[in-house]
């Protein structure tokens, strides 16, 4: 027979309550270890410390921010690097949503491109650009050509009318004789 692959195995899901209980147990163990290292008294310490263990997660976050564990040799040597930027996590209450927002390079370029296009269109409509001047000159030439064509048509029409009138006069004179 064939051996089944890893995809047919039964999956086990952990409930959120179990996860919370595990996290609380780990935090409790870490606190007890810290207390043993500091004072060596264990669980029979201050009632304030026991109260802290029962408090909400806010006190846990404050303790973590206050006392960060250093890795490797960092604890032994104090280095002040002026170029090192420590990224501080901000809380939601500290965020400034109303302040001016930084635009990305692409957004800035897109806005500049739109503004340049608008300026060009204004100049073009005012007739100040090279293309607008060329268009106006071409339009003037076309107008002159059309006026000349219309004038020639009018002259031809008048000449036809006069020729027709002259022909009618000749006919009427010849009929009268």
TrEMBL record:
Residues 1-113, 147-177 are annotated as: Disordered. Residues 81-158 form the Casein kinase substrate phosphoprotein PP28 domain. Residues 46-55, 98-113, 147-163 have a biased composition (Basic and acidic residues). Residues 56-65 have a biased composition (Acidic residues). Residues 1-10 have a biased composition (Basic residues). This is HAP28 protein. It comes from Furnarius figulus. The gene is Pdap1.
């Amino acid at each position: 027979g064939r051996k089944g692959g890893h995809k047919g195995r039964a999956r086990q899901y952990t409930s959120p309550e179990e996860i919370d209980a595990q996290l609380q147990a780990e935090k409790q163990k870490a606190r007890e270890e810290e207390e043993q290292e500091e004072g060596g008294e264990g669980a029979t310490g201050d009632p304030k410390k026991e109260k802290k263990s029962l408090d909400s997660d806010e006190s846990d976050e404050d303790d973590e921010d206050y006392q960060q564990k250093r890795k490797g040799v960092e604890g032994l040597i104090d280095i002040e690097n002026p170029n090192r930027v420590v990224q501080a996590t901000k809380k939601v209450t500290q965020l400034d949503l109303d302040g001016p927002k930084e635009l990305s390079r692409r957004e800035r370029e897109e806005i500049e491109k739109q503004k340049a296009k608008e300026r060009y269109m204004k100049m073009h409509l005012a007739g100040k650009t090279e293309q607008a001047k060329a268009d106006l000159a071409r339009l003037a030439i076309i107008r002159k050509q059309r006026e000349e064509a219309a004038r020639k048509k009018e002259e031809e029409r008048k000449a036809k009318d006069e020729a027709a009138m002259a022909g009618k006069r000749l006919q009427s004179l010849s009929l009268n004789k």
